[in-house]
Amino acid sequence: MNKYTLILAIFLTGILSACGTQSNEQASTNSTSTANENGAISAAEVHKKIKDNPKLTIVDVRTPDEYAQGHLENAHNIDWNSNSFENKIDGFERDKPILVYCLSGARSAAAAEKMRSFGFKNVLEMENGMMAWRAAQLPETTANVSVAKPAGMNRDQFDAALNSPKLVLIDFYADWCAPCKKMAPYLEEIKTEMGDKVEVVRINADDSAELSSQLSIEELPTVLVFKNKTMVWKNVGYIGKEELVKHLQ
């Protein structure tokens, strides 16, 4: 290789390296932009938002034990992994900003996606959760100042749920109820597999104590099936998927 060929090769290598760097920087910028579009903001930005808006609704989706060890001031604790997450989050206003966080960001991302599917219009997620908050040495508290009260379901909401052209399957359950936990996975399957003709509504009996009393729900699980707002079948206690589906045909 003569010296002119060598100089040309070095020159081209430098150009390609520069282009590669520019491409990587652009990819990084695009990645950050996507995260922001999805509502993810840094711990520092969260801290500023709370200062600017002390009434900002904040939801900690970690377990109660994690919450008790330290959380953002005035944060509501609604465990993402609890069966009552959907009922409890339903109590918040959908048209106001709401911030969600967990330990590192995975649970809050899942919770935020679910909330958006429920119609929440402005859901913010704290990037990397409490790990980022603590790394930035931002303030936290161990006081249970604002644990979310169960939203539950009232009689008007129950009656509205029955206003469907489909069969309506009502499942009264509780988080502590072992048979209820056993039934939960296949009830989700029925919701998907028979969604064209069956509405599945799960009601936490503990959170909806008044409604449970009004409907004389004395044991769990209790399954009620309604057609045209009239109860056509009832089952108290555990029932398998195959047997339940027979009553929905």
TrEMBL record:
GO terms for cellular component: cytosol. Keywords: Disulfide bond, Electron transport, Redox-active center, Signal, Transport. Residues 1-18 form the signal peptide. Residues 132-249 form the Thioredoxin domain. The keyword DNA repair does not apply. Pfam families: Rhodanese (PF00581), Thioredoxin (PF00085). SUPFAM superfamilies: Rhodanese/Cell cycle control phosphatase, Thioredoxin-like. CDD domains: RHOD (cd00158), TRX_family (cd02947). PROSITE patterns: PROKAR_LIPOPROTEIN, RHODANESE_3, THIOREDOXIN_1, THIOREDOXIN_2. The keyword Cytoplasm does not apply. Residues 52-142 form the Rhodanese domain. GO terms for molecular function: protein-disulfide reductase activity. One of its GO terms (biological process) is cell redox homeostasis. This is Thioredoxin. It comes from Runella defluvii.
